[in-house]
Amino acid sequence: MADYQTGFGNEFATEAVEGALPVGRNSPQKAPLGLYAEQFSGTAFTVPRAFNKRTWKYRIRPSVMHEPFERIGNGNLRSAFDETEATPNQLRWNPFPIPEEPTDFVQGLNTIAGNGSSFSQSGIAVHIFAANRDMKDRFFFNSDGEMLIVAEMNSVRFLTEMGIVEIGPGDIAVIPRGLKFRVELPEGVARGYICENYGSHFRLPDLGPIGANGLANPRDFETPVAWFEDREGDFELVNKFGGNLWSAKIGHSPLDVVGWHGNYAPCRYDLRRFNTIGSISFDHPDPSIFTVMTSPSGEPGVANCDFVIFPERWLVMEDTFRPPWYHRNFMSEYMGLVYGQYDAKEEGFVPGGGSLHNQMSAHGPDLEAFEKASNADLQPQKLSGTMAFMFESRYVINPTKFALESDSLQKEYFEVWQGLKKNFKD
Q1: CATH topology for the 67-257+264-269 domain
Q2: Burial classification of residue 424, based on how many CB atoms lie within 10 Å of its CB (0-12 exposed, 13-18 middle, 19 or more buried)
């Protein structure tokens, strides 16, 4: 249904109707085809050129045409993380159920944990979405942060101002802060994970000693071509602003951009195209070698958020405990599973579920995984049919009251390590 252009952060020019883009200038006295010119800025105007994000849109009606916003209920959506005390305990959840009542993407947002805030422009929120209804006459945009969306159950179609982005299990979408869209569910129901990023834009990590190639290649990120709808009617525009949901009446579809050019745009990425880098001698490397995108903080090398994946890959290390070792980290980790089995947690950690291990909280393989890996015949091994991921942050990630009181919380998670034996021999 959608066409794409490739390249992460490229300057694109695309029009759904020939002649929609002006030539040689951004805002002529009269825009082509009777359209309105509108700049969509993702950064301050004076950010260095290499990091400046902006797009010019040429639309049927300007974005200012809507009635005043009024506060509506937030449901299980949160952007303040002071409902509960931060905990050093290891936490894990079963998959959250698909709602029985008609629920669209916005209504199906459930906040699991987070840190920072949109006001400080730092930190992240972790949400699960579970929906069973299309958004038809309802539109949404998020003024608080960009959204990195990981599809887990079935496909999700984002019809945005700048084109159509469709993802399925194994894909991600990045929706810029402030971009309007509505969501369709081609298979009727869908579920997935969201990292709402309040800090610096996600970007590709530097490769350092890896060299010019490896990890996520810029050309594999796909940005949609121009697409629009010209509809009039009684519609609702929902805005997430200051941590709350606001609603305004609007008499037309805001997805009416006929052409656009710039580098501030949505994109999708197939995680199976990630070029994994690993050890071919001994030891299990740090998971930073699996970083797809990073949101830097003010301290070099210490991320506001890293998005890390654990896809299919070969393990060939000799005399090595191959799963992730037991560890206590400076960074806090929320982890999810899209499909398959994770090698360090073969039971209890399932697709649609998640785990939270805050900074310096010990975690690692459960008893069964430890025994299996310690006694395995170390031949080359292919980890097949698996896709796990991690949102990793320098800040403590605080679970919400909803997440801690949910029936999906595995209250006995700590028991997976209690059977580990004392093997020491003096």
Answers
A1: Jelly Rolls (2.60.120)
A2: exposed
**What pLDDT shows up at residue 9?**
84
pLDDT in tens, 277-298: 999 999 989 999 999 999 999 8
The 3 state secondary structure assigned to 323-347 is: CCCCECCCCEEEEEEEECCECCECC
Question: Is it true that 67-257+264-269 and 272-412 share their CATH fold?
Answer: yes
Phi, psi of 67 (to 5 degrees): -80, 170
Domain boundaries, the chain: 67-257+264-269, 272-412
Least confident of 61-65, 114-118, 170-174, 323-327: 323-327
Express each pLDDT in 330-376 by its tens digit: 999 999 999 998 876 777 899 999 999 999 999 999 888 899 999 99
Residues 6+ apart with CB under 8 A from 76: 109, 110, 111, 400, 402
Residue of 127, 201, 252, 284 marked active site: 284
Active site residue 284: yes
Beta-strand relationship, 244-252 and 70-72 = antiparallel
Residue 287 — φ and ψ, nearest 5°? -70, -5
8 A C-beta contact, residue 57 and residue 220: no
For residues 329, 92, 147 and 387, what is the CA-based torsion angle, rounded to 10 degrees?
80
Smallest Cα–Cα separation from 137: which of 235, 29, 219? 235
CATH number of 272-412: 2.60.120.10
User: Residues with Cβ < 8 Å from 166, sequence gap 6 or more?
Assistant: 1, 2, 155, 156, 157, 158, 186, 268
